[in-house]
Amino acid sequence: MRRAVIAFTAFLGGLVFLLAGPANAGPVDCEQGLRGTLRLQGQPVNGVKIAVTTEGGQPVQEVTTNAQGAWDVEVEQPGKYKVTLDVGTLPQNAEIRGGNNTRTPTVYEGNCSAVLFALQPKGAPGQPQQQDTGGESSFWTRAAQLTFEGFNLGLIIALAALGLSLIYGTTGLTNFAHGELVTLGAILAYGFNVGLGLHLIPAAILAVLVAGALGYGQDRFFWGQLRRRGTGIIAMMIISIGVALFLRYVMLIFFGGENEAFAQYTAQPGVEVGPITAAPKNFVAMGIELAVLVIVGFALLRTRTGKAARAVADNPALAASSGINVDRVIRIIWTLGGAIAALAGVMLGLSQSLKYTMGQEILLLIFAGVTLGGLGTAFGALVGSLVVGLFIQVSTLWVPPELKSVGALVVLIIVLLVRPQGILGRRERIG
């Protein structure tokens, strides 16, 4: 019952937290009109022409995307407009997902409507294009591509969710500052990579080590002190929201509000593997993510520290009476959680641009993966995150990309109605 109350409170707190967070301001100001941003594999696309006309075909304005891939057009009258992207100005290795280069958004009085053109890499140069036999072939090709992208996203979410799940399992704390640990890892790697001139690989390793040390310090000097003072779980959860806001704005001061990118591996030509096209960095990143998840899972099952962590998660008082140093185990979990979150931030930064809100933006998906898989279970976080990532990407076959997160949350609700403890969670006795 206690965990059910905490989970429900965490959900409500998350909604308040996300609504109270800073709005992600668009790259351009727009009082009444249309705007958008073009990105290819997380990188802005510059120099693409966008033409806006009225619904009746009267020209309004033609603009070109800037260095951040952004464009905007202000209109005098609200109503329906036609936005056309000039595919001839796209980079040679880019195309519009689905092939439709026209959008018909509606502008409401005093509002600026966002227009989305999802870009994806083209096939290898010189390869003959697959014939569309009634649309069936292209549908399954797109489904395969989205499934791959879903696994890629799911593994990144799983890395971030793993640390959150382990911390919850051993302490009962729903840590809303965990998204900032993800951002911190990416920013540390960026500082070592761009600021100090290190190659991204040693920079990422240093960022993971530093983030792990900071995770240890968090528990040693902050969360551990609160536990010893008898601070309640709900109070600590509220405190974590304040910590998240504090860290976010500190990173804004030092990192800035602009989107940045690592010095290496930012733009790579796509590689075709069957119906899938992806940059080589995506395959390597997925291999690293899988390896880390398997190693951590094996360590939890086979090592003495892992068994001690599971004992603390099951019953801290009984574990302490059995001779287990509970504070030491929790400190190790915080160190591991901070390091894994930092690695997730580096991987997320490879797949998109870096910004100070990147962890906050995937925090709800992290919570969804943890809750869906089963609170406090490492393998549950992996399974739940993969399901979330897959549904987010594959759902765009049928729903607009703007609503792609809805499908994952609907699945979360359905699964929890049938199995309240999550996919791999354990049913608890109530009363």
Topology overview:
Layout: H1 2-20, E1 33-37, E2 39-40, E3 43-44, E4 49-54, E5 59-64, E6 70-74, E7 79-85, E8 94-96, E9 102-103, E10 106-107, E11 112-114, E12 119-121, H2 136-171, H3 178-195, H4 200-228, H5 233-255, E13 271-273, E14 276-278, H6 280-302, H7 304-314, H8 316-321, H9 326-351, H10 358-373, H11 378-394, H12 404-418
Parallel strand pairs: 1-11
Antiparallel strand pairs: 1-6, 2-3, 4-5, 4-7, 7-9, 7-10, 8-12, 13-14
Helix pairs in contact: 1-5, 1-10, 2-6, 2-7, 2-9, 2-10, 2-11, 3-4, 3-5, 3-9, 3-10, 4-9, 6-7, 6-9, 7-9, 10-11, 10-12, 11-12
Supply the CATH class of the largest domain.
Mainly Alpha
Distance between the termini: 7 Å
Helix content: 55-70%
How much of the residues is beta strand, in percent? 5-15%
Characterize the overall form.
elongated
The CATH topology name of the largest domain reads: ABC transporter involved in vitamin B12 uptake, BtuC
Count of individual beta strands:
14
Radius of gyration over C-alpha positions, nearest whole angstrom: 23 Å
| Mean pLDDT score | 80
Spell the H/E element sequence. Answer: HEEEEEEEEEEEEHHHHEEHHHHHHH
The description of the largest β-sheet is: 5 strands, antiparallel
Oligomer: single chain
> Which CATH architecture of the largest domain would you pick?
Orthogonal Bundle
> Helical segment tally?
12
Number of domains: 2
Poorly predicted tracts of residues: 15-28, 124-135
- Return the structural class: alpha+beta
